[in-house]
Amino acid sequence: MQDFIFGVLPSETQRLKQVMDNRSGVTHRQLRIPFDPEPGQPVTLELTVGPDFLCDRAWVYWTSHGEDPAGHMGSITTGSCTEMEFVGSEWDTPLWGYLRRFRAVLPGQPAGSVVRYRIGAAGHRSEEVLADDGAVYSYYVDCDPAPEWVREAVVYHIFVDRFYPGKGQAWLNPDSLSGFFGGRLKGITEKLDYLVDLGVTVLWLSPVFPSPTHHGYDASDYMDIEPRLGTKADLRELLDKAHQKGMRVLLDLVPNHWSSLHSTFQQAISDPNSPYREWYSFTDWPDQYECFFGNKEMPKVNLSNPAARKYMLDAVAYWLEFGVDGFRVDHAVGPVADFWADFRRVTRSVKPDSWTFGEVTDPPNVQMLFGNGMDGCLDFVLTEALRETFMYGVWCGPRLADFLDRHDAWFPPAFSRPSFLDNHDMNRFLWKVGGDQRRLRLAAMCQFTLPGQPVIYHGTEVGLSQKHDVHEPGRGLEEARLPHPWGEQQDQSLLAYYRALIALRRSQPLLQNGRRETIGFGEDGLAYTLSSPDAEEHQRFLVVLNLSGETRQQVFAGKWSPALITGAECQAVETNEGTEISLAPWGGMILHSRDMPQ
Amino acid sequence: MQDFIFGVLPSETQRLKQVMDNRSGVTHRQLRIPFDPEPGQPVTLELTVGPDFLCDRAWVYWTSHGEDPAGHMGSITTGSCTEMEFVGSEWDTPLWGYLRRFRAVLPGQPAGSVVRYRIGAAGHRSEEVLADDGAVYSYYVDCDPAPEWVREAVVYHIFVDRFYPGKGQAWLNPDSLSGFFGGRLKGITEKLDYLVDLGVTVLWLSPVFPSPTHHGYDASDYMDIEPRLGTKADLRELLDKAHQKGMRVLLDLVPNHWSSLHSTFQQAISDPNSPYREWYSFTDWPDQYECFFGNKEMPKVNLSNPAARKYMLDAVAYWLEFGVDGFRVDHAVGPVADFWADFRRVTRSVKPDSWTFGEVTDPPNVQMLFGNGMDGCLDFVLTEALRETFMYGVWCGPRLADFLDRHDAWFPPAFSRPSFLDNHDMNRFLWKVGGDQRRLRLAAMCQFTLPGQPVIYHGTEVGLSQKHDVHEPGRGLEEARLPHPWGEQQDQSLLAYYRALIALRRSQPLLQNGRRETIGFGEDGLAYTLSSPDAEEHQRFLVVLNLSGETRQQVFAGKWSPALITGAECQAVETNEGTEISLAPWGGMILHSRDMPQ
User: Fold this and answer.
1) Pairs of residues, one from chain A and one from chain B, whose beta carbons lie less than 8 Å apart
2) What pLDDT, in 10s, does the model give residues A542-555?
């Protein structure tokens, strides 16, 4: 990894510590099979007991109608209790002791059930120890794949304050990049035709709720719109018009925390008897409380409190009913684990074809844990891989190919993995490559031929860059949030390329989910075919990417015609042996098989 | 762990490094299921490819008649090739990448087969990488449980130079503890009646081959007897008389290395054209070569060389034919992995009821890898657990009970796990507890009621201790090798206790392999029953151990009668509620259920 941070495990030491912690205690960590059960499917739960916990019995306390299960030492107060079976021990060298493994099977449940459970373990006459420090887990039972419209989704990520102020409105001129630039919902509505022309199908808006900051990731109210950005009527108009034009709109939801200006927090800190005190986690009222990465202006919401949870779920239902099509969920690892089944129940019951995906910067083993409560997660390790390869030039072509194979094998096919080259929290790709658009085009060509739904961070398509590194002393993530260029500021050539790329992906299902097979193009290149798993289907695509600063040629077997090129110097010529493909430095090409219907 | 070293992984850092290494490369590490196949049973082999190895194909090259398999990139030269199947990827957080998992199934083979294999993996047009640095593995196919006589085995571990010089012979008076004290084979033969009285069933002799050292773990010839210790005729007499008295005799075998005085080594370093050069691993002939932990007087034998391997196997066959009943195998992790199937073939074909177990100081996951080539391994982690509990007093009773449950669950029941409280390479138990025999008796009572075959290091039964810590500057392991006391030097009370303990274990199969169930006796104690898995069988034993310096009483349900006590102040009294057991400080008792036939 290079200069930007993916998650909270930057060093090997921290990662090893996490692994050791996960094995040394009484841990479940949502190890259940299947993870996302269908109606009637039994679910196997696994438990590990480290060497220091002298537990030889374990129980699952569970309910199937959403109540909080309660029990102790195998006796239940609320719900059911299933004793876990000891299935064996396993020597663990780093811990220098044996792990105990337990297993229990919970019966299948009807569609729409929320199963909630906790696990306890105890030894002979010893105190009960709750797995994962007493965590309550839950899962929602339903056949609930992502809606069909997600398959060809191309997402456009709008940082609202920086997109467009609206006709006749100039950008504001704040003192710093963390001031207000004046982008508004109306501005987005006015630019819908631009987005239709671009070809994107889904708009993801950065937070639009009332908030004191330019980014909005600290709402003071979840039931209204920030006046700087517009009104509910403005959002209504945006939604209606976008829907008319065939686009969907996602809001950015932050269930983990909100602004200290939120009225419930203000009451909680001013009135010791306020019921809202329980909406937060005070360690020393009123000054000390859990908050977002130490930021006291962003208190963490206690979603274990039923009223706080209801408020959050009501907001989710409200905006879905209002007309939004789903959510990008900020910092999804923050809320308590058992929030997500309720979240899923609400999203699926209010709007069955809504789409939600999480921001989970933890690695894929953690992302998998969101496959029941949401449709998937933003694909951070793919971003890392694409940047290592196309931006830093650290990974060779075969390494990226190998990574892609393993990455696809890890996730279930139904798991949504929206892909991105950059976002509002990291240096823009184009800036990091010193403005070398060839690399951006090449990376995007790769991104748009992978199974994840491509996300374009607004501005990328017209050459928006930045002025300083986000990690430069005195600078910050705002460097990657410059206002969107309009008119002559836009790079029309790049825009045309993005339009073509989007159009090609949307029109060709093989580019969305074809079976990828790597073929050789040396260390400095990457070539793969995309074909149908259906053997009767002869359509195929070939993607060839030159990862070097040299022109490169190679003959590929078969007859191929260019469908898209990154730049003019790339060409394909038919020869006796097949098709000779010649690529400019950092050039790439998507080709289709000749016998394919146009 | 306290002051003595179990194996080569003393620190967490080293252990973590080993785990990381095992995952990051192209590794098999003998992960096969079943590990010890029976005739006709297919064997599944698993392979892991770390993130840095871009391998998407893998092959097993194998033979079933003992030849060395040879092949490359899926083409074979000798034997068969089975392509491995990619079965999935797994995210690994410490390595920050995905592991690839491959699997292949080798067909079942007839009894007596030695299957030999190596594994290679490669990526698209890349070089083949051999798993585990090119290691060759093998397994011997047969139904070969340890012989029946092992079930009630009680092993007596004799350090030959220190046991008995023979009638009329005085101990020698060497300058240091690493000199010769004059113990001889004849001396052992003369003391067979002592050993019969003691009740032990198996003698394990420290190395008896010609050697320049007092310990003999560096033989200069594997086909003769060290003259100081006696002659082949002396060993013949010892074997014959021991067998007549119903005892078995094991030799100590060191396949990994021998003395630099060995004639083949002398030829190898003096003649550059000697065929014996290949019997060793010279890195810079004749001065630099692989040896035992840097000790140049103990060159490592290259058992991959067919002639060297044949010499070693011939020696194994020779001594089995001579009449010995098996081997304790020194430093079994040293020889190349594929030696062991040949070793097993020879031991089982020459003497089907021989017993062999390894000295493997690595933890149980490594010990398991010797379950095909031998009957089992000396139980080092049990020694650690018993010493932590009874010697250092660091582990409480429930912790030991919990460990024992996990330990038993890990190993297959057929795996021999000879148990010991101390040996010639660590401080004697009695010395470490300051001569407190109560603790030794208590530890031995526990040892003798566990499934592993108890080993007594000679002298322990008569109170032999030592004068200095083995880790004291200027001292060494020899401190734990003082000569055996005879006559009035012997502690008759302790000897009588050991006799009773051995007799009880031998007469009661439930003490050898009863189903152990822990019952409560507080933090400072340990109590468990031993019963038959056969529900019809009502015989039961109760073992109660007081781990404190206080007298302790407790009523146990049921009627129990003492079968053995560690000291006079321990008693059992029938009460209305059951049996009240009163134990002196560090006292213990074995009881049998009243309705049990005597």
Assistant:
1) 112
2) 999 999 999 999 99
Nearest to B38, CA basis, from B102, B115, B150, B147: B115
Instruction: Quote the Cα angle for B184-B187-B188, to 5°.
Output: 95
Inter-chain touch A56–B398, beta carbons under 8 Å: no
* Mean predicted confidence (pLDDT) in B497-507: 98
pLDDT digits (tens, 9 = 90+) for B32-73: 999 999 999 999 999 999 998 999 999 999 999 989 999 999
ipTM computed for the complex: 0.92
Using a CB-CB distance cutoff of 8 angstroms, which residues of chain B are in contact with residue A403? 51, 97-98
- C-alpha closest to that of B464 among B490, B501, B432: B490
Per-residue model confidence (pLDDT) at position B447: 98
Model confidence at B4: pLDDT above 60: no
The answer to whether the beta carbons of residues B479 and B470 sit under 8 Å apart is yes
Query: Position of tokens 């100590």?
Result: B252
| Rg, C-alpha atoms of chain B | 26
User: Among residues A133, A3, A111, which one has the least CA distance to residue A426?
Assistant: A3
Residue A96 structure tokens: 């220098």
- The sign one gets for the Cα dihedral B333, B337, B339, B345 is positive
Q: Is B224 on the interface with A (CB under 8 A)?
A: no
Rounded CA separation A252/A220 (Å): 14
Q: How far is CA A5 from the centre of its chain?
A: 15
The one-letter amino acid at B389: T
Q: Do A15 and B94 touch (CB under 8 A)?
A: yes
Q: Are A543 and A572 in contact (CB under 8 A)?
A: no
Q: Note the pLDDT of residue A113.
A: 96
Q: Do B381 and B352 meet the contact criterion of CB atoms below 8 Å apart? A: no
Report the distance separating Cα B197 and Cα B471, nearest Å. 35
Q: Which residues of A413-446 are buried (b: 16+ CB within 10 A; e: fewer)?
A: eebbbbbbbbbbebbbbbbbbeebbbbbbbbbbb
Whether residue B1 is predicted with pLDDT greater than 50 in this model: the reply is no
DSSP assignment of A359-395 equals ---S-HHHHGGGTTTSSEE--HHHHHHHIIIIIS--S
Taking the C-alpha atoms of residue A552 and residue B523, their distance in angstroms, rounded to an integer, is 74
Q: What is the mean pLDDT of residues A218-230?
A: 98
Q: If you average pLDDT over every residue of chain A, what do you get?
A: 95
pLDDT digits (tens, 9 = 90+) for A139-175: 999 998 999 999 999 999 999 999 999 999 999 999 9
Closest-approach residue (CA) in chain B for A49: B406
CA dist., res. A62 & res. A46, Å (int): 14
Chain A residues whose beta carbon lies within 8 Å of the beta carbon of residue B406: 51, 89, 97-100
Instruction: Give me A284's structure tokens.
Output: 């020393």
